Structure formats: structure tokens, C-alpha cells
Automatic annotation (TrEMBL):
Record protein name field: MarR family transcriptional regulator
Provenance organism: Flavobacterium cupreum
Highest taxon of the lineage: Bacteria
InterPro entries in UniProt: HTH_MarR-typ, MarR/SlyA-like, WH-like_DNA-bd_sf, WH_DNA-bd_sf
Domain HTH marR-type: 13-153
Length: 153
């Protein structure tokens, strides 16, 4: 007879990590449906969106800035940005003052694709999270708190 497996939580519905994993998979599936026609992965979209946000305040956005904004690994950001450059969505140029850094900019094509993607993703998110109704703001605040608490790990 197999050994009894002990869990801290009484059921999967009591486990925040298990629930987050389930929710993330469903949400990513919805995102994939809207991003596939735009030739973007979810990771590529996040990096383009981070670049879009950062570009509102700076003309010298670096790969490190994008990695910090997105909480993604720096090496992965570099690889994904190379792919986005190959697709013609971004340019990567030497930084004016830091020879180790690259300045990243959206191309006209990248701006157009990002704008389409933002509309599609925001509509998908509004639909996906619609059942939260007035609790959406609290849900978002809790996610920000968890990100801030755990981003250094």
C-alpha cells in the first residue's frame, strides 16, 4: 500500500500557489489566442509593453531598464529583444554614454503592432477578470504587494 502523502493545505482550493498556477495557465491561454495573430508571444508582448511604458519618459531605454521594468532575467531579455529586432519591431543601438549598454527603440512597425496588441490584451484582460467586478482594484493591489515583496528573490 502506498504511503500517505501529506499536504499543508486540505485541498487544492486552499493552496494559493496551486490556484495561482491554474489561473496563470488559463490567463496565458487567453493571451496566446489574441497574440498569435500578431506574431507575438506573451513574453515578447511584455517586453514591448515595458519598452512602450519606459519610452514615454526616456529616449535612452536600455535592456537593463526593460529587464527591471518587466522583472525578467537580463539574459532572456537580451535574447527576446534580438528576436524582436529580427521581426523589425525594435532597434538596438550602442548607448551614447555607456559602451556596455544598448539603447532600445520601437520601430514604426513595432509601435503599430504594440498598439494593436495592447488593445487586444486589454480587452482580453477585461473579459478574463470581469467576474471580479468591484474587487478588481483590491486584486490588483494584492498582486502589486506580492510583486514588491518577492521581486528580489
Amino acid at each position: 500500500m502506498p504511503k500517505e502523502i501529506n499536504f499543508h493545505f486540505k485541498s487544492p482550493k486552499d493552496s494559493p500557489g496551486y490556484l495561482l498556477g491554474q489561473l496563470t495557465m488559463l490567463w496565458q491561454r487567453k493571451q496566446k489566442k489574441v497574440l498569435d495573430p500578431l506574431d507575438l508571444t506573451q513574453t515578447q508582448f511584455v517586453l514591448l509593453a515595458a519598452l512602450g511604458w519606459l519610452s514615454k519618459n526616456s529616449n535612452a531605454v536600455t535592456q537593463i531598464d526593460i529587464a527591471n521594468q518587466s522583472n525578467f532575467d537580463r539574459m532572456m531579455v537580451s535574447k527576446v529583444l534580438r528576436t524582436l529586432e529580427e521581426k523589425g519591431f525594435v532597434t538596438r543601438q550602442e548607448h551614447e554614454t555607456d559602451t556596455r549598454a544598448k539603447t532600445i527603440r520601437l520601430t514604426d512597425t513595432g509601435e503599430a503592432v504594440l498598439q494593436k496588441a495592447i488593445i487586444e490584451i486589454e480587452n482580453a484582460d477585461l473579459d478574463f477578470f470581469s467576474s471580479l467586478n468591484e474587487n478588481l482594484s483590491s486584486f490588483n493591489s494584492n498582486m502589486v504587494k506580492l510583486i514588491d515583496t518577492n521581486k528580489t528573490e
